[in-house]
Amino acid sequence: MVSQKENKTSSVQQLIANSRNKKTKKIVEKAMPTLLFSAALISILTTFGIVFTLIFETFEFFKRVSITDFLFGTQWLPFSGKEPLFGILPLIAGTLKVTLIAVVVAVPFGIASAIYLSEYASEKIRRTVKPILEVLAGVPTIVYGFFALTFVTPMLQQIIPGLKLFNALSPGIVVGIMILPMITSLSEDAMSSVPNSMREGALALGATKFEVAIKVVLPAALSGIIASVVLAISRAIGETMIVSLAGGSTPKFDLDVTDSIQTMTAYIVQVATGDAGYGTTIYYSIYSVGFTLFIFTLVMNLLAQYITKRFREVY
């Protein structure tokens, strides 16, 4: 009799606990969509807030400076005592110099590394090398900047005697090293997603392993590879610390890579450190340059998405 009463009591307690658990689960199920929607909404509102701030402050700048002079001017002299000049072309030229050098360094080595990891390396080597490359991507950019200034530049000066201490070549090479892991990792992922049946079919037809990699795998993974390159370029365009430390602060509208330059991000760093007072034209020029940089990176990201959709292979 006692055991029957204990069993009934325990069963009643289990029913109560189960009902409570069901109520808790129902509350969680109802609350989670609201919480997740709130998180997504905060992200969207933050993005709109950043964009609206850039647009509003940029319009304030263009109330003081002609947009034609800004877009087509070839001199950037905001601190000139006589007549400040705000032609954005020298800053764009400096940014593009560093970016193009970085692309020349990163794209060939990145794609070659991806081909090796995808087609030639053993599973053990792949598991060892790829995490090392991804760790390299996590190195702080200020470390890369000091590396460019204290190691790469002196080494290049031994090869190029006329190379200045601050130049475009050194930070361009180091930015290329910085974006190399991004290209390698994303390109290797794209190549690894190519079905093995395509490789086996090409080998069965008499193709060599190198021909399979170049003529079969590479074209099949082309959308992912191009997207990785475009994303890496947008990362190079927005790089700040490397070009600030090793590039200099002399905006010039020319093709010389051995002399001091100034990029858009380096100018923002220069002014943001306190060289201009709040509400001045120089202060608002930060936002105009930032908005220009935003347009560059936005176009690159949209281009990456278009290329990914346009050339995506369906297996």
TrEMBL record:
SUPFAM superfamilies to which the protein is assigned, alphabetical: MetI-like (SSF161098)
Entry keywords, A to Z: Cell membrane, Membrane, Phosphate transport, Transmembrane, Transmembrane helix, Transport
ABC transmembrane type-1 domain location: 92-304
Transmembrane annotation, as ranges: 35-56, 85-111, 132-153, 165-183, 216-237, 282-303
Membrane topology qualifier: Multi-pass membrane protein
InterPro entries for this protein: MetI-like (IPR000515), MetI-like_sf (IPR035906), Phosphate_PstC (IPR011864)
Localization: Cell membrane; Membrane
Pfam family, one: BPD_transp_1
Primary location: membrane
Family from the record: Belongs to the binding-protein-dependent transport system permease family. CysTW subfamily.
Role: Part of the binding-protein-dependent transport system for phosphate; probably responsible for the translocation of the substrate across the membrane.
Name of protein: Phosphate transport system permease protein
Organism of provenance: Lysinibacillus xylanilyticus
